[in-house]
Amino acid sequence: MPSSAQRKRVLSGMRSTGKLHLGNYVGALDNWVHMQDEHECYFCVADWHALTTDYADTSRVKENSLEVLLDWLAAGLDPERSTLFIQSHVPEHAELHLLFSMITPLGWLERVPTYKEQQENITGKDLSTYGFLGYPVLMSSDILIYKADFVPVGEDQSAHVELTREIARRFNLFYCQRGRAVFPEPKTVLTPAPKLPGTDGRKMSKSYGNTILLTDPEPVVRRKLKTMMTDPARIRRSDPGNPDLCPVGDLHKIFSSPETLAKVDAGCRSAGIGCIECKGWAADALVSILNPMQERRKKYEENPRLAWDILEAGSARARKVARATMGEVREAMGMSLDYEAPESVQAAE
Length: 349
What we know:
By secondary structure, this protein is mainly α. It has two domains: 229 residues, HUPs (Rossmann fold), CATH 3.40.50.620; 83 residues, Tyrosyl-Transfer RNA Synthetase, CATH 1.10.240.10. Helices cover 54% and strands 8% of the residues. The chain contains 15 helices and five strands. Strands 1-2-3 form a three-stranded parallel beta sheet. Helix 4 packs across helix 8, helix 10 packs antiparallel against helix 13 and helix 11 crosses helix 13. It is elongated, with a radius of gyration of 23 Å. The mean pLDDT is 91.
């Protein structure tokens, strides 16, 4: 493992949306677990970001934040190797967000692809708010306040990291601290996220109601897979299929062993196996991954205070870094909390 001085810093996070599903695991969480040995990692439970769409009812934000953390710990994130914290417990994020909002052109936010996409797709909520338009600026403050070198994201979030780079560049242009830039320009690390379909064949998403949760017990996993869509051309048991066109085949490619994958490929194409048998093998692979996670989760489910203590300790560590960054920001902007007489006054004295 590289020494702490050699390790690059990573920042990423997830919104407080409650229990996570396999799409979250494949798309981000599994990659985070592997990154924590080689990098100095900061992982943020983004409860303020949850308010950008769920501002009208905050009753479950705290509970959902805890559920996210429990799934992180179950998947293998280690508070001894990574800093796990909750966004709202580090108020410096909000201060930097405010300062960034003063210098971020409106056009930069309106061109972020997810802005219009989500307005079109989330039709049951009024998203005509400053918070929703400006959430990429808050995301930029999340990243830059830790001076992150790398931000692991899915391809759909890469535009946000590019905006972060532009905001850092603009801030450094306007302000500098003793002739040097305050913020680095973080690099995007695209998470290798293979196609993971939900039970209806579409992308796995809570909004579609097609997820397999990391907390789903074995009977639920098997029941969900029994109803999962398969190759639409395979109507009868005797029809040969194409696992490359089958959502269950996609699950096998991600989770099954090479031996099982070979059996699926040969059996499906020759009609030597039926879809029910194929789904059973997929369920076996998922259960073998989920059961150990659920066992690790039990420790914290039985003692939620232990999990919350991890968040509080991580937030305290994160805040030390955030405070130091804000000290540099204020000094660069000439807004230090410590009084220093202006140069004109010093000269008069």
